[in-house]
């Protein structure tokens, strides 16, 4: 179990960070769409299939990775077009900033473009200076009963929201591990090449598991310190299980790297027979328990799992603010529809208390009747949006 005594950073002063205007061009179902959204709560309603989630997906591209659907960028281009663009006018730190991303056709291969105030940015990680993102989608409903790989991706998303370089480390680890696996397949490979790639794998792997464990420990500590047994969203307890995680948390980083490197060398025969590297961050699992009942989250009822997941995402949003000073933009896709009126009211109150901008979708406009009067409610239909009172 994570250490409840982990020190929590002092909560910083809040600063307004929100998307005041969002523009899409040839993105998914939209030929062109512009939304004025200068409010801390934006609700999108409309029938299934009209493109509500597409809007949230467009926003999710202002962070490293492939967005909340984990789709290939080429699949986001509207049918008949050869590129797409997403524009966000951000209010941040008392000023305005123009953020843009998209896919442009190149000579031979399309490339992702990122721009900040008209200047090219090296990667989506540069957007982290202006906004952080947290999201919850229906795809996560089976998280606690699904495969460990889903929970690792969820965990990496938690880390990425507070550490914008984490995605680069995870990608570098995947490349290095694939290189090792290929060398193992070639029985004639020079042992010195394996030594070199295993040194690289060990260094990156320890960095990845350390970042995961530190973030999980901080989140566990924050949940423990702020738990409210009366909340309709039960608190969770967190633990990361994995042979390498135990190694990384029990030794200094340099010693952990050396120990893992020796393990890789000693297990070359086993890994060659398996066709893959068996020990490493790719074998870790995020273990979540339903705190009040003290049972594995996967054994809770469907409704309890949904409430537990919402509570976990809300706690993560608070952690992002504590660690970065930026109240994150929260994207919630079809969340309110699965809640009874009491939990829905509690969710809206929690979202307001977060202090960041919230984007929500729902098929039924009545779900948003209890939102604060300052909320912007848009009806999405026919490739456009209509403001509702």
Query: Could you state the CATH homologous superfamily of the domain at 15-132 and 326-389?
Result: P-loop containing nucleotide triphosphate hydrolases
Strands of the widest sheet, in order across it, are 2-1-4-5-6-7
Helix content: 25-40%
Strand percentage: 15-25%
- Structure classification: alpha/beta
Number of DSSP E strands: 15
Question: What is the typical, i.e. mean, pLDDT?
Answer: 92
The Rg value, from CA coordinates, equals 22 Å
Describe the structure.
- It is a single chain.
- The chain has 389 residues and is an alpha/beta fold.
- It has a domain at 15-132 and 326-389: P-loop containing nucleotide triphosphate hydrolases (Rossmann fold, 3-Layer(aba) Sandwich), CATH 3.40.50.300.
- Helices cover 38% and strands 23% of the residues.
- The chain has nine helices and 15 strands.
- The protein has a six-stranded antiparallel sheet, covered by helices on one side. A six-stranded mixed sheet has the order 8-12-13-3-14-15, sandwiched between helices.
- Strand 5 (95-104) and strand 6 (111-116) form a beta hairpin.
- Helix 2 (148-162) crosses helix 4.
- The radius of gyration is 22 Å and the shape is globular.
- Mean pLDDT is 92; it is low at 3-10.
């Amino acid at each position: 179990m994570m250490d409840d005594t982990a020190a929590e950073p002092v909560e910083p002063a809040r600063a307004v960070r929100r998307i005041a205007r969002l523009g899409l061009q040839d993105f998914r179902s939209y030929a062109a769409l512009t939304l004025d959204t200068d409010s801390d709560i934006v609700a999108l309603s409309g029938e299934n299939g009209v493109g509500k989630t597409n809007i949230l997906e467009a926003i999710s591209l202002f962070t490293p990775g492939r967005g909340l659907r984990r789709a290939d960028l080429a699949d986001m281009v509207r049918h008949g077009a050869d590129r797409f663009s997403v524009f966000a006018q951000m209010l941040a730190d008392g000023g305005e900033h123009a953020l843009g991303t998209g896919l442009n056709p190149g000579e031979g291969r399309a490339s992702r473009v990122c721009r900040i105030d008209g200047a090219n940015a090296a990667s989506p990680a540069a957007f982290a200076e202006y906004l952080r993102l947290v999201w919850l989608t229906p795809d996560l409903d089976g998280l606690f009963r699904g495969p460990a790989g889903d929970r690792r991706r969820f965990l990496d998303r938690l880390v990425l929201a507070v550490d914008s370089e984490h995605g680069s480390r995870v990608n570098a680890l995947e490349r290095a591990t694939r290189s090792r696996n290929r060398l193992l397949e070639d029985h004639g490979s020079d042992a010195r090449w394996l030594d070199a790639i295993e040194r690289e794998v060990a260094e990156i792997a320890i960095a990845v598991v350390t970042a995961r464990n530190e973030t999980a420990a901080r989140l566990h500590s924050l949940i423990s310190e702020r738990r409210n047994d009366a909340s309709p969203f039960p608190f969770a307890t967190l633990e990361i299980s994995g042979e390498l995680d135990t190694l990384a948390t029990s030794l200094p980083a340099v010693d952990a790297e050396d120990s893992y490197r020796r393990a890789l060398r000693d297990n070359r025969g086993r890994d060659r027979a398996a066709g893959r590297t068996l020990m490493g961050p790719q074998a870790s699992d995020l273990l979540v328990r339903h705190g009040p009942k003290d049972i594995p989250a996967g054994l809770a009822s469907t409704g309890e799992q949904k409430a537990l997941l919402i509570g976990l995402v809300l706690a993560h949003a608070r952690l992002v603010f504590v660690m970065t000073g930026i109240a994150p933009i929260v994207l919630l896709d079809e969340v309110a529809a699965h809640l009874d009126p009491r939990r829905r009211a509690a969710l809206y109150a929690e979202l307001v208390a977060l202090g960041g901008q919230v984007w929500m979708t729902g098929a039924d406009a009545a779900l948003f009747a209890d939102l604060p009067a300052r909320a912007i409610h848009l009806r999405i239909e026919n490739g456009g949006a209509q403001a509702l009172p």
